[in-house]
Amino acid sequence: VKSDPALRNTDLVLLTPLGEQGDAKRLGTIGFSGYLVKPIKETSLKETLQVVWGARKHGTSAGLVTRHRLGDSEILKAPPARPTSD
In this model, does residue 3 exceed pLDDT 90? Predict the structure, then answer.
């Protein structure tokens, strides 16, 4: 998806039944915006999409949004401060 010019700016959020150590780092490196391991609460999915889309709206990147980062309430309060390179 990220190699296709028409889809390059698509935000990708992976929902997976299994998580392994190192997944978050690897997925962030290859361009994912979010990573959630099942079972996923509806509120977690909504908050993840809110953060990812909010960052895009503000022309920034939230980095990789995970369940652990959602636990940090600061990520939900303010737009991310890191500009995107696009």
Answer: no
